Amino acid sequence: MHQVQNENRPAFYRVPVEDDVPIEARQPTVLVDEVLEEETFIPAQNASSMASQYYLQYENGAKPSENLASMITPDRRSFRVSARVDQGPTHVLLEAFDEIRRIADAHFPEIRGTPAAVEDGSALSTMTMTGRFYLYMNMMTRFVGTLVESLSLALLAITLLIVFVYRSLTLGAVSLIPNVLPIITPLGLMGLLGVPLDGPAVLVAAVALGVCVDDTIHFITKYSSARKEGLGIDAALRKAFRLVGPALTWTTIVLVLGFSVLMLSDFRPNIVIGILGSIMIFLAWFADFVLLPAVLSLIGREST
């Protein structure tokens, strides 16, 4: 408003100071309305009164989405300060929010009071960080913790069920390999590359875990049945490949192609789901067809 009132000159894009007040406005004056024969007293103006008038003009003349009504409550007891920030890694942005709090504590401690301090007059106000961006950044930190917690509980439950169904601690422990590696390998690579773990990654991890467990149970079931029939390790593995191999392979191809279609989207979450989904499902097939048989063969020979 100060710049607009001064012919939009960039030099006036700042808070008004006393020198900005016109000389004739620094003294009180009396204006006489010759028609109504009324006198109007105009007090002397200073930088503070000028700023107040600017605020009044801004509130009455700005766009509905930009006026003070969108930043100050009707009772004038609460106000909002908005700022734009550049996109960056979650931890960097959270450090920036912490720095804002430190600056407020160091230079404006009176606005960082508690509700009780405001009530007794020892503080002017409270301060709360909010906004969609701030919410999203804190959601990112929650994603990691909840993902680790939920996947750990799911894997523990699945492993215990496999141990109970097949009556074998060995099969339960071995099943962790094809169930865990396809999930943690892409997510670990994302961490090394500095790619934030967001909602789409968590969603794909949950879907991929279901595919991994399904493939693993199919393979272990056929292998366990063949071993109970008296077949040797190699013969049991060959029978398992012959019975479930084609189905698991074609299922993997269909799922990978289906997720790959999402890579053509212009919406970033869809692209992330497409890439991670294709990678995790392929790794699930690789783990069940290469790692799981190798571990079963090694353990079976050591036990004999």
Which features would summarize this protein structure in a list?
Multidrug efflux transporter AcrB transmembrane fold, single chain, mainly alpha, 304 residues, elongated, 3% strand
Describe the structure.
The protein has 304 residues and is mainly alpha-helical. The chain folds into three domains: 4-70, no CATH class; 85-129, no CATH class; 142-303, Multidrug efflux transporter AcrB transmembrane fold (Up-down Bundle), CATH 1.20.1640. It has nine helices and two strands; from the N terminus they run ββααααααααα. It has a two-stranded antiparallel sheet with strand order 1-2. The mean pLDDT is 85.
Number of domains: 3
Order of helices and strands: EEHHHHHHHHH
DSSP summary, beta strand count? 2
Percentage of helical residues? 55-70%
- Which CATH architecture of the largest domain is right? Up-down Bundle
Question: DSSP strand (E) fraction?
Answer: under 5%
Instruction: Kindly report the average pLDDT value.
Output: 85
**Which segments are poorly predicted (pLDDT under 50) over 5 or more consecutive residues?**
none
At the fold tier of CATH, the topology name of the largest domain is Multidrug efflux transporter AcrB transmembrane fold
Order of strands side by side in the largest beta sheet?
A: 1-2
Oligomer: single chain
| Biggest pleated sheet | 2 strands, antiparallel
Radius of gyration: 34 Å
